[in-house]
Amino acid sequence: MLKIENLSVSYGSVRALSDVDLEVLGDGILHGVIGPNGAGKSTLLDAVCGRRRPAAGTVRYRNEDITRRSVAWRRRQGMARSFQRTSVFQDLTVHEQLHLVAQHLGDNRLDDVIEVMDLAGYLHQKAGRIAYGVQRRVDVALALIGRPHLLLLDEPGAGLSAAETLHLFEHLRDLVRERKIAAVVVEHDVDAVFACCGKVTVLDLGRHLATGTPQEIRADHRVVAAYLGTAA
Ligand SMILES: Nc1ncnc2c1ncn2[C@@H]1O[C@H](COP(=O)(O)OP(=O)(O)O)[C@@H](O)[C@H]1O
Ligand SMILES: [Mg+2]
Fold first, then answer.
1. What is the full per-residue pLDDT of the chain (232 aa) written as tens digits?
2. Is the CB of residue 211 below 6 angstroms from any atom belonging to ligand 1?
3. Distance, CA 124 to ligand 2 centroid (Å)?
4. Alpha carbon of 51 to ligand 1 centroid (Å)
């Protein structure tokens, strides 16, 4: 589904990612990405979805080199990204937001998305007035419109309690499994990642540190030294 090779991204003189290789299969499992603040996790999603041009390296999607394709092209080809900070327009109702994106993508099957993210009870409320946890579900719902093949989620649990985050992750795990799609989920809460992701990648200082099953990652002494030793 996604193959990243030798990816490097810079912001001026700051090297945010260096020579990252990563493969994500479209096999219905959640692929978690963890690592300390500033490790380059959001930058990785930006480079994959086309918001940020890499300084070097290639991004392949469904066996095609898409490194130079636009964000809009990638979205139409089934790659959808959500953001670390909630991106909903506060003055629109939940339904208006969903409808806007659906119109843009020419996909009117909203019922499915509403049901999956359990939003039926909130459709006519303004996004700025609903609880934060529900706003995060709206964000994920927006990414699900158009039946994406590859979901890129940036800290969907940000601002949620540990229990809410775990619940959201369980939901995502089931959804990705049922639809047999691929999903890359950046997350701060390592417990939710280890509980629900089939594969985990660790970034540190812009470099790929390790990729493996949750058991392998927990047992990796380099990961423990760089991250888990302090985080978990
Ligand atoms: N727009 C930007 N301009 C300059 N530096 C940035 C920008 N975005 C991120 N960075 C830097 O790039 C590095 C990686 O950031 P980021 O990808 O946001 O990390 P993470 O999501 O893992 O916390 C950090 O050193 C950060 O300060
Ligand atoms: Mg980030």
1. 999 999 999 999 999 999 999 999 888 999 999 999 999 999 999 999 999 999 999 999 999 999 999 999 999 999 998 876 666 677 899 999 999 889 888 887 898 889 888 899 999 999 888 988 888 888 899 999 988 999 999 999 888 899 989 988 998 999 999 989 999 999 989 999 999 999 999 999 999 999 999 999 999 999 998 888 854 4
2. no
3. 31
4. 13
Residue 204: give its domain's CATH number: 3.40.50.300
Q: Which atom of ligand 1 is nearest to the CA of 46?
A: 17
Residue 48 inside a domain? The answer is yes
User: In which domain, by residue range, is 46 found?
Assistant: 1-78+187-232
Confirm whether 22 is domain-assigned. Answer: yes
Say how many domains are in the chain.
1
Contacts 24+ apart (CB under 8 A), 50-58: 50/74, 51/81, 52/9, 54/7, 54/8, 54/9, 54/17, 55/8, 55/9, 55/10, 56/6, 56/7, 56/8, 57/4, 57/5, 57/6, 57/7, 57/8, 57/19, 57/20, 58/4, 58/5, 58/6, 58/7
Is 157 a domain residue?
Answer: no
Ligand 1 centre distance from Cα of residue 34 (Å)? 14
